[in-house]
Amino acid sequence: MTFSSRKVLYINLITRSFEIKTYPDLHAFLGGLALGLKIISLNKEKSPLVFSVGPLNGAFPFVSKTCILDYSIGLTELYLGGCLSSRIRFAGFDAVVIFGKSREPVFLEINPSEVNFLTPRNFSPEVGLPGRSAKLAFNGQFLVLNDYFYTRENRLAHFFENRNLAGIVVNATVSLDLKNSSVYNSLYNEILGRSNDVSVMPANNPSCSGCPLGCKESQVGETEGNVLVHSLVACKYASAIYSDLGIVFSCLNSLGYDYTHEELESIPGLVKDLLKELRK
Amino acid sequence: MSKILKAVLPEKCLGCEMCVYEAQRQMNKLGPEGSFIRIFKENGRFSIVLDPQVNTLDVEKIKNICPQDLYEVLDVENYDLLE
Questions:
Q1: Is any Cβ of chain B less than 8 angstroms from the Cβ of A207?
Q2: A163, A187, A195, B74: which has the fewest C-beta neighbours closer than 10 Å?
């Protein structure tokens, strides 16, 4: 994974093929919402379904969501918790894009360098690497992540059904080296110590990966919110932490990402322009 | 004396993976691949598998990062990892 380029996995359900593309010129779009909208803008005619993550997913506390954008019936913006964002990130991707409709129900197994298209003939319920995967599958009419998390009004289920997509599993087998570990660890612990700034009550529910709070709100995903937070993609309840440009700049810097304050300040403007284009 | 990490209350696990990532951070890594701690989900419950090599890390930090206090650190005499 490079820090200036964005790596995107494209999956075509009609031809059952996939392609990995690296974009050196999408650095300005950070990740999550901004990156997802730009990807849709580049692929409008294919009515894509996009799962996008940000550079802090899997690295900092409370940055635990995946941005999901669908462009089949207008533009739909969803966010999902659980461990999906860390699995996509540590499969080596900034985004996963799905086109087309499969001729029969298909289950996708996503690995860092390949995608397996599994049909009822060759699908096993045990698909996915134990302890390192995220599985989105139907439980009755609900599309559920790891048997617990789902999107608001179960909307993602409709987009899967319309594409004859039975489910997805993402296997995370890529690890990244920490280059600036003392700075990173100090910042990580500082943010972890700010759990009182997260606007949920800690509880004992299954928790999103990288969040110790176990709140009841995380089971059902979010919809719209702060643009910077949703480009990272942090939990909206942690907006008090991750809407702070200084904190975000420091976090990115500690991981080796080369962003200026001006680039981060320009993200809402980029998103606004893309939304205007896509909602015409 | 060696310090040994033990999951004494695995039924309290939330699946947050804070321990998984703490173990990786101590190895200067990000990501679950190769972590000495694995969290599985079976029949609606989380279970924890500890590789004995986790005891080469700072296990007190791993114990302390768990929001559910499900780990204990035991002091054990003559605990050697098998080569």
A1: yes
A2: B74
